[in-house]
Amino acid sequence: MARRILAIPLAFALLSACDDQTQKVPRKEIKVTSAEQRQLHQLDAFNLAIGLKHAIYDAGYTCKTISDAGFVGTWKNLDMWMAHCEYGKGPGRDWAIFAGPDGSAQVRDCRDVPGSGLPECAIKQRPKGSFTEVK
Question: Where are the domains of the chain?
Answer without folding.
Answer: 35-112
